[in-house]
Amino acid sequence: MTRTAIVTGGLSGLGAATAVRLAADGIRVITLDLAAPGEGVAGVAGVAHAEHGEHREHHQLDISDHAAVQAVAAAVGPVDILVNCAGIVGPNKPLLDTTPDEWRRTFDVNVMGTVATIRAFAPGMVSRGWGRIVNFASMAGKDGNPNLAAYSATKGAVIALTKSVGKELAQTGVLVNVIAPAVFDTPMNAKTDPAVLKYITDLIPMKRVGRADEVAELVAWLTSDKLSFSTGAVYDISGGRATY
User: Fold this and answer.
1) Going by DSSP bridges, is the β-strand pair 4-8/28-33 parallel, antiparallel, or unpaired?
2) Is residue 218 one of the residues assigned to a domain?
3) How many domains are there within the chain?
4) How far is CA 16 from the centre of its chain?
5) pLDDT value of residue 168
6) Buried-most residue among 88, 114, 147, 239 (CB within 10 A)?
7) How far apart are CA 229 and CA 8, in angstroms?
């Protein structure tokens, strides 16, 4: 039986690496992204470019639009795997210089977008008795990064959301876990202020940024039958930065 996966933010960065990796296992991969194929898609270190056709079913939408997400869920049919990679950095400045609109947009995408996809795709998984959901948070959600207060707050929320939903679905066959990466070589981090990027990279004992394919391997395990007794858990992939 061929399984079907939804990967949000699937045209670049960690999402693109995840889409390529899951497709390599024979999984039908459907990407959701604000961009269209070929539109602003950057190469990802260590993986094939996303546009090479390994998994080409794509829906262009804003994941914070709950109605649009529900419409896609109705169109694509049963989904077994949901990987929530889509996210934005939000305001790159001190908290006192941020605006309410900047906070709202960051929460709409990073938190409410994750809520929207879980609400749309998890019921079918529950009804069939099997599913895997992997959310993407960040080490910022555990440590808090200076000048990234909105981003850090949203990623802390995604961690708490995952723990709650993992408990709610624990006896359904649907496992829900969250990955907390440190700094990775992705287009999103290319937009981060260089001083902030240096600060958070210097916190990594391995003294390097991660590669997207390293995260994709972790996702492949978390979305497989090999995972059976873990839900509501946080998986750090941080080059040694994680301390709890």
Assistant:
1) parallel
2) yes
3) 1
4) 10
5) 98
6) 114
7) 25
Flag whether 118 is in a domain.
Answer: yes
Provide the CATH number for the domain around residue 37.
3.40.50.720
In Å, how far are 121, 128, 184, 215 from 77, measured between CA atoms?
Answer: 9, 13, 33, 27
**What is the CB neighbour count within 10 angstroms for residue 156?**
18
Between helices 212-222 and 13-24, what is the axis angle to 10°? Answer: 50
Q: Which residue has the tokens 């080409």?
A: 56
Q: What is the dihedral of CA 125, 36, 10, 74, to 10 degrees?
A: 0
Minimal CA–CA distance to 4: which of 116, 85, 82?
Answer: 82
Count how many residues are written for the chain.
244
Strand partners, 7: 31, 83
Residue 191: its pLDDT value, please?
67
Number of neighbouring beta carbons within 10 Å of residue 206? 12
Label residue 13 exposed, middle or buried (CB < 10 Å: 0-12, 13-18, 19+). Answer: buried
- In the block, tokens 């996966």 appear at 5
Distance CA 110, CA 104 (A): 10
Cα–Cα distance between 123 and 4 in angstroms, integer? 15
| Within-domain flag for 159 | yes
Domain hosting 180: range is: 4-237
In a domain, 39, yes or no: yes
Distance CA 15, CA 10 (A): 4
Residue 240 or residue 135, greater confidence: 135
At 82-104, the pLDDT tens digits run: 999 999 999 999 999 999 999 99
Confirm whether 244 is a catalytic residue.
no
What φ, ψ does residue 82 adopt, rounded to 5°? -125, 125
pTM of the model: 0.90
In the block, which residue shows the tokens 């997207």? 212
